[in-house]
Write a structure and sequence with these properties.
The protein has 497 residues and is α+β, with helices and mostly antiparallel strands. It has 18 helices and 21 strands. Helix 9 crosses helix 11 and helix 9 packs antiparallel against helix 14.
């Protein structure tokens, strides 16, 4: 594994039998998996280039068991890696050799649906699409829709603050979660938010937990916002002779004040791979394809479609095709949703990146990636959440031919370029282990020290998901040092705790 993980604790490894026995008391039956062959199913997540067996796998049935497992691990200095469906693309759920892999897949029930208050209460193992399936009979749905929505769990969505094709208009996970229940590393069960509005005068703890990548606590219950399905939704396919022109069209649509329900972009390699896989009706004679969806009242949608087609023409579009029924609209999106597995059919391996840039920089970044293809001798297929500048370049490589290191360097250069043009390292996949060592590209040492102080507040021993996000951890005592000058601390009038 080319990315270094924390050195395992020999003290923990030497007590493996004792630890497994203690965990079997807390989670009886088949809830503890310690056989090597059985644990192989958990050795990696969606970032399959990196694999590592955990110390032991634990699958609790209820929040009481989660609490007792975490309390036991805290008292015995045992690392814990929380895991949902294992679809993380940043190595966020990569196990540790000396750590308990705490798998929440048995937490898969929809607990309450409240249509009057437009919310649902679910366990973290419920899939993203499962929420929509539970409420669609009343004309409702859950808006964030990652491409992996058929498999990814809502708990993992919270860990990474996942988005999807409709996040441009309806927001990321953070904008659609109303409350959570989570368990601290000490075993304390905490509730944040719920069906009620946020109380005044409090820190945004829910916002802090959303996107915290399993470093602060283990989510055991989620309250989400559900929306009523729009009266009309239609999508248009727009083909361009270059990716740069497609990028300019995206910027023009937003500049016009139009906020589509979704606006996605694919380049030629991704278009052909998706069309071969799904037969969605994509044009093959274009270099870039936009899928733009407008939703709302029928009259508004019809008007906006006319506006978007005119803007596309002004930006050099060579083809447009508007969906004429729901089946055709679904087919347009089926190709985009299947883009990642489709690309998997044309390359032995691919490295899925995730960075976000200002929309106006899209042409420059696309040109930069073309130059990187020549530099590294590797191809790159591009699939973007174009409306909000969230890029998902797929670097194609062959691990058996020794190309992984080059693919990693290619991916690192893409992310560095994203930061250089005013963007960020991740839009929805998280930092995990994949982008961990790139954090200094975006944050100063002071920035990261402040982030680690938050980590210390929740997990002073650094037992929750260690080795992720921070390139170098400091002991909490180091971060807590105060500068004393001539016998006085800074700001002596402030209360000290």
């Amino acid at each position: 594994m080319s990315i270094a993980m924390p050195k395992p604790s020999e003290a923990v490894l030497s007590r493996r039998e004792e630890i497994v026995s203690a965990l079997r008391v807390i989670v009886p039956g088949e809830g503890v998996v310690d056989a090597t062959n059985e644990m192989k199913a958990f050795e990696s997540d969606g970032l399959t280039a990196y694999r590592q067996l955990p110390l032991v796998v634990v699958l609790p049935d209820n929040v009481g068991q989660v609490s007792r497992v975490l309390k036991y691990c805290h008292e015995n200095d045992i690392p814990v890696v929380p895991r949902g469906a294992g679809t993380s693309l940043s190595g966020g759920a990569l196990p540790l050799e000396d750590g308990v892999l705490l798998v929440l897949s048995k937490f898969n029930k929809v607990l309450d649906i409240d249509f009057d208050n437009r919310c649902a209460v679910v366990q973290p193992g419920v899939t993203n699409l499962g929420i929509t399936k539970a409420v669609e009979h009343r004309g409702f749905y859950y808006a964030p829709d990652p491409s992996s929505q058929i498999a990814c769990s809502i708990g993992g969505n919270i860990a990474e603050n996942s988005g999807g094709v409709h996040c441009l208009k309806y927001g990321l996970t953070a904008n659609n979660v109303l409350g959570i229940e989570f368990v601290t590393i000490e075993g304390e069960i905490v509730r944040l938010g719920g069906k009620h509005l946020d109380a005044d005068g409090h820190y945004d703890m829910l916002g802090l937990m959303t996107g915290s990548e399993g470093l602060l606590g283990v989510v055991t219950e989620v309250t989400v916002r559900i929306l009523q399905a729009p009266e009309t939704a239609r999508a248009v396919l727009i083909g361009f002779p270059s990716s740069e022109q497609a990028g300019e069209c995206v910027a023009s649509i937003i500049a016009k004040g139009i906020i589509p329900g979704g606006m996605e972009m694919m380049d030629r390699p991704a278009i052909h791979a998706a069309e071969d896989f799904v037969n969605a009706g994509y044009p093959r004679d274009v270099e870039a394809l936009l899928i733009v969806e407008l939703d709302g009242p029928k009259a508004e949608v019809d008007h906006l479609l006319t506006e978007v087609e005119a803007i596309a023409g002004e930006n050099g579009a060579t083809t447009t095709r508007v969906s004429q029924n729901e089946e055709e609209r679904a087919a347009f999106w089926a190709g985009r949703k299947a883009a990642f597995p489709a690309v998997g059919r044309i390359s032995p391996d691919y490295y899925c990146m995730d960075g976000t840039i200002p929309r106006k920089e899209l042409p420059k970044v696309l040109a930069g990636m073309k130059a990187m293809e020549k530099k590294y001798g590797l191809k790159c297929a591009n699939v973007f959440h174009a409306g909000d500048g969230n890029l998902h370049p797929l670097v194609l490589y062959d691990a058996n031919a020794g190309e992984l290191e080059r693919a990693e360097e290619f991916g690192n250069d893409i992310l560095k370029l994203c930061v250089e043009v005013g963007g960020v390292l991740t839009g929805e996949h998280g930092v995990g282990v994949e982008k961990r060592d790139l954090m200094p590209e975006m944050f100063s040492e002071t920035d990261m020290n402040h982030q680690q102080r938050v980590k210390c507040t929740f997990d002073a021993k650094h037992l929750l998901n260690p080795g992720k996000v921070f390139p170098q951890l400091h002991r909490c005592a180091e971060l807590g040092r105060m500068h004393v000058h001539k016998g006085e601390v800074a700001f002596p009038d402030l209360p000290r705790f």
